[in-house]
């Protein structure tokens, strides 16, 4: 097995080993104020959402994870089966592996073969050329392209594996947005975003952004535990939580579509993220955990349960549609409160 295939398998193994080990998402620092008159019925709830030109039945999706080895091909097939049965959109992991090593292309193509009619996003790093973007989209017959920005992860990866130059990301993303021919979603990988980052992306024409914050899968912890000397434990708490990142994005939510991911596991996490202005929620680590521990059928049943729980929660909150959730009264406690004060956010 090549170093590259081994790395993909290690990511999956370590994500599962470290699953749930991150103590805080900041969603626990958010409380809804209960009001006694919902003034609506459960049957009034409409869970549909819209982003990156897609109309989706549910406000959550399977976010970018894997591909590039035999083991990850199987995981992609399981995830694609869940997506097919539930109608969820699904992203692949970085297709860069297949561009460098065409022999692993099948571990990505399996997603489209399993789910011919589904909404599928291909995924690549921000440094890639438009030509590579088109190849990634072709391989999956993808409906959109996710571009990930992951500087902390690259820097913790050993010399020879991790990227060391970061000067062309914005210009490459701009070219991709202008030329790749499908909608582009720029995403973090669990370190969150600041309002400055969001403004930089808006200036180069990005229309859809997944803030992917701290609180779930932690790629500094994952890469650090792949090293013999674990030099980077100081950085394991790096970045903004998903809740804080969404608050940072608030001033721009009428100009750019914001998606939430990072540490989202339950319908209550989803409702909190949607209340902070996200159009939809991406789940990675939790879906990986579910398909590996419960299998495909029970994961599908779990998604159906989430649909019902979301309807219940939205009724309780008097929200007929996703956008109504933003009208909720929410109490924000520490550490979110202190962040807002320090950044002068009302
Ligand atoms: C990821 N993630 C990821 N993101 C990306 O854009 N490209 C990728 O190739 C990968 N690879 C990957 C592998 C594995 C095993 C996991 C669990 C995750 C990051 C992912 O999309 C997401 O941003 C973070 O994992 C945070 O969300 P969760 O896992 O806390 O829901």
From TrEMBL:
It catalyses: isopentenyl diphosphate = dimethylallyl diphosphate. Residues 167-329 form the FMN-dependent dehydrogenase domain. It is an enzyme of class 5 (isomerase). Mg(2+) binds at residue 154. One of its GO terms (molecular function) is NADPH binding. Signal peptide: none annotated. Keywords: Cytoplasm, Flavoprotein, FMN, Isomerase, Isoprene biosynthesis, Magnesium, Metal-binding, NADP. One of its GO terms (biological process) is isoprenoid biosynthetic process. InterPro entries: Aldolase_TIM, FMN-dep_DH, IPdP_isomerase. Its EC number is 5.3.3.2. Pfam families: FMN_dh (PF01070). Its cofactor is FMN; Mg(2+); NADPH. Substrate binds at residues 7-8, 153. Its main location: cytoplasm. It is found in: Cytoplasm. Belongs to the IPP isomerase type 2 family. Involved in the biosynthesis of isoprenoids. Catalyzes the 1,3-allylic rearrangement of the homoallylic substrate isopentenyl (IPP) to its allylic isomer, dimethylallyl diphosphate (DMAPP). This is Isopentenyl-diphosphate delta-isomerase. It comes from Vagococcus allomyrinae. The lineage of its organism: Bacteria, Bacillati, Bacillota, Bacilli, Lactobacillales.
């Amino acid at each position: 097995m090549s170093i590259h295939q081994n790395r993909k398998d290690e990511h999956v193994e370590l994500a599962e080993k470290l699953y749930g080990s991150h103590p805080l998402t900041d969603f626990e620092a958010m409380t809804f104020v209960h009001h006694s008159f919902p003034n609506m019925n459960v049957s009034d709830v409409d869970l549909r959402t819209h982003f990156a030109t897609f109309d989706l039945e549910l406000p959550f999706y399977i976010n970018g994870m894997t591909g590039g080895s035999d083991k990850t091909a199987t995981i992609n097939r399981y995830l694609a089966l869940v997506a097919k049965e539930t109608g969820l959109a699904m992203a692949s992991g970085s297709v860069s592996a297949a561009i460098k090593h065409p022999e692993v292309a099948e571990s990505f193509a399996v997603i489209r073969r399993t789910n011919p009619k589904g909404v599928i996003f291909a995924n690549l790093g921000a440094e890639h050329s438009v030509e590579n973007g088109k190849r990634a989209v072709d391989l999956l017959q993808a409906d959109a392209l996710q571009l990930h920005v992951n500087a902390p992860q690259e820097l913790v990866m050993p010399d020879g594996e991790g990227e060391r130059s970061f000067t062309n990301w914005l210009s490459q993303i701009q070219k991709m947005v202008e030329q790749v021919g499908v909608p582009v979603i720029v995403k973090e990988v669990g370190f969150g975003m600041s309002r400055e980052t969001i403004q930089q992306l808006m200036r180069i024409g990005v229309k859809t952004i997944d803030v992917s914050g701290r609180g779930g899968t932690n790629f500094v912890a994952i890469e650090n535990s792949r090293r013999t000397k674990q030099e980077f434990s100081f950085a394991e708490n790096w970045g903004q939580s998903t809740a804080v990142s969404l608050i940072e994005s608030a001033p721009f939510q009428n100009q750019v579509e914001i998606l939430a991911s990072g540490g989202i596991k339950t319908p209550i996490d989803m409702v909190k993220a949607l209340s902070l202005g996200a159009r939809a929620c991406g789940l990675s680590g939790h879906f990986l955990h579910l398909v590996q521990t419960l299998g495909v059928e029970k994961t599908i049943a779990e998604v159906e349960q989430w649909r019902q729980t979301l309807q219940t929660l939205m009724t309780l909150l008097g929200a007929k549609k996703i956008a109504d959730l933003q009208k909720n009264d929410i109490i924000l406690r520490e550490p979110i409160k202190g962040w807002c004060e320090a950044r002068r956010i009302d």
